[in-house]
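Entry 12.
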Amino acid sequence: MNILITGAKGFVGRNLVENLKAIRDGKNRTRPGLSIGEIYEYDLDSKEESLEDYCKNCDFVFNLAGVNRPKDASEFIKGNFGFADTLLKTLESFHNACPVMLSSSLQATLAGRFAGSEYGKSKLMGEELFFDYAARTGAKVYVYRFPNLAGKWVRPNYNSAVGTFCHNIARGLPITVNDPAVELELLFIDDLLEEMLDALEGHPHRAAYPAAGETLDGAVFDGLTPRPDENGRYCFAPVTHKATLGYIVKCLNAFHDQPETLMMPAIPAGSFEKKLYSMYLSYLPKEKVAFDLKMNCDARGSFTELLKTAEHGQFSVNISKPGITKGQHWHNSKWEFFIVVSGHGLIQERRLGSDEVMEFEVSGEHIQAVHMLPGCTHNIINLSDTQDLVTLMWANELFDPAHPDTFFEPV
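Predicted 3D structure (tokens):
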């Protein structure tokens, strides 16, 4: 399957191109039914004559080209209608009725705050152009009205407030939030790409856009919300997230502070927070990619906290000098894992009130996790005369200096 992508250097285009290449080259095996041949990348700086060759030979078109921040409003029509017209006429001239996807916008609904939007009007004209083309040629058209798009490579200070926030907060620059209560609906790029691949495989999610005030099964529609409908005229990406500007900024500030606090926010699989954190990290400047950790050093070696979580404990790394014994304490309810990753050592544990000592010889040559049991005093001994002993440690709760739950007792 040969695929034409217009607007290939834009935010969605770049992400789509790289992910299609990964499938084509066998690096992404999640879509075994897709066989991708040529990927035709067309953008503003492409030669116009190449469009004819691409339209002649393509088997699917992603039309992502468009204008959203012109110097003059008249450019909306040229960018969002004129090129689409050229594209479809070129396909038709070669009798190529392959499926065509159109990247439109919620603004094309002209509902609510988008009433009177010149950008929305130009997008609506483009939509109708595609529907007319489908009726005339029999080609399948997939028209998507995207909400706010988010994810890696969004251009800051352009048309994405979230992209601007990520860019500025990552660099310690000021941001402006006029109303923290304003809610955004965000479609993250990974979810968008999954829908694009669904469309490529011929099973996009279809929907209708009920008019504002229309009701169905007790729900009142606002003109902006897609209603899933397998026979719907439009298509939509089913996974989006809604969040207020205030909450978005709160999250981004927590991400920014993580190298200092070591606190990793909760980021469940598929959550808004996980996707926003991934987006934020893509904006880090080089000087923020690596950061120092506080090493607590003495003659015995060092102890460094790596990562903390509110609900799942903390991670640390302990370095013991040759011949050194560390630990010699017990906990009431705290438990830990010790994982030696380098060196040769001995872990000892003894239940309080007992003389029986459990011993575990550990080495970076054979990595194991050893439980430090509640109510058992424990230690770790570096058995080497020359090599440091490096141990990754996990505790089920954060260390609280006011309530350390740590009591000295030799094994």
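Annotation: The chain is about 30% helix and 30% strand. The mean pLDDT is 94.
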